[in-house]
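Tokens in:
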């Protein structure tokens, strides 16, 4: 089932809609046409209570001013591009700079700040909506007109399937993701440090003190980044380690072992579960990496339902190409050729 409700009006007069996708299991997910934000994700944990497993805000105003990308779609380029500069087909490009001297998440007016066109694709037992965006040549400094489609489908098996499609008028770089902050105990619960996570990644990309990859791809053996066995989030965070200091916690890209270039199906990549094992989130994707981010920058941030979010109150699994790939030719390529069809898929499955 899908319902639509107004979620306020932008300063330019555009009306924002909230879609609520609900399946027969009683899982219900609220999605906004501003930034394609996943605002609420309710799972029925007991007969008469539901737990909201993502961080978010109550009002449109807060989403307009948000600088943490809570729940939002990210593009054109998730994560950092060093100095916002890259060269493509012999032309130098300068993007918007919004994180020190770097570009983060596609610039200050990236996809998370855009108003997406929307339509309902299916109102059946697998409710599905389509969001669409036309980003013009030069938008935030990126080359080429690009037409982006994102399909959100809530399946009857409690998976949220996110499919990204794009094509560009000339070659460009493209790296979309969703930036949901999960707290499987509920968004008001507090720290996620007692969650356990697994990531099927034998390597990761170390960062410098500004979060930009150094270009190395190194083994996770004997580092705090070995999440192949289920590991509590507390463990790496408490490790005396320069990388953890650089990220102010976990804010690192892990290189997924089962990535296969051009695969169109999502493969199991990661999971998180509550300490008591009652709620599990499984992540499937066809992207090469996942940024594991432990919400290190949140400080007294007012959230939904009078929540007050702090650092470590959520964990993001941002499926992505590696950060700064346009400047790292040995990383999987983010180049999207003119008239090539981009497709990626990420699925978040919740078991409870
Ligand atoms: C980045 C963080 C950033 C956060 C909020 C994450 O994907 O890696 O460094 O603070 O997004 O935008």
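Residues out:
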């Amino acid at each position: 089932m899908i319902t639509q409700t107004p979620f306020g009006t932008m300063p330019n007069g555009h009306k924002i809609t909230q879609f609520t996708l609900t399946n027969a299991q009683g899982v219900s997910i609220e999605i906004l046409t501003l930034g394609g934000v996943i605002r609420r994700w309710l799972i029925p944990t007991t007969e008469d209570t539901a737990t909201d497993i993502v961080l978010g805000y109550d009002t449109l105003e807060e989403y307009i001013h948000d600088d943490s990308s809570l729940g939002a779609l990210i593009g054109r380029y998730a994560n950092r591009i060093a100095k916002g500069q890259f060269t493509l087909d012999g032309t130098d490009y300068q993007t918007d700079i919004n994180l020190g001297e770097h570009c983060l998440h596609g610039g200050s007016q990236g996809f998370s700040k855009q108003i997406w066109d929307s339509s309902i694709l299916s109102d059946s037992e697998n409710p599905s909506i389509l969001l669409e965006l036309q980003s013009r040549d030069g938008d935030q400094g990126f080359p080429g007109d690009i037409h982006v489609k994102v399909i959100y489908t809530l399946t009857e098996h409690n998976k949220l399937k996110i499919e990204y499609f794009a094509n560009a008028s000339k070659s460009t770089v493209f790296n979309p993701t969703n930036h949901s902050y999960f707290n499987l105990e509920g968004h008001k619960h507090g720290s996620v440090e007692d969650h356990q996570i697994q990531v099927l990644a034998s390597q990761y990309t170390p960062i410098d003190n500004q979060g930009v990859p150094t270009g190395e791809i190194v083994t996770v053996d004997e580092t705090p980044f070995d999440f192949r066995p289920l590991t509590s989030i507390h463990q790496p965070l408490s490790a005396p380690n320069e990388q953890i200091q650089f990220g102010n916690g976990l804010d690192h890209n892990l290189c997924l072992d089962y990535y296969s270039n051009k695969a169109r199906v999502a493969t199991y990549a990661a999971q998180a579960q509550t300490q008591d094992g009652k709620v599990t989130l499984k992540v499937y994707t066809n992207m090469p990496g996942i940024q594991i981010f432990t919400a290190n920058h949140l400080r007294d941030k007012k959230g939904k339902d009078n929540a007050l979010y702090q650092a470590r109150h959520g964990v993001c699994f941002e499926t992505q190409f590696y950060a700064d790939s346009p400047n790292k030719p040995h990383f999987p390529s983010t180049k999207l050729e003119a008239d090539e069809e981009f497709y990626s898929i990420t699925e978040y499955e919740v078991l409870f």
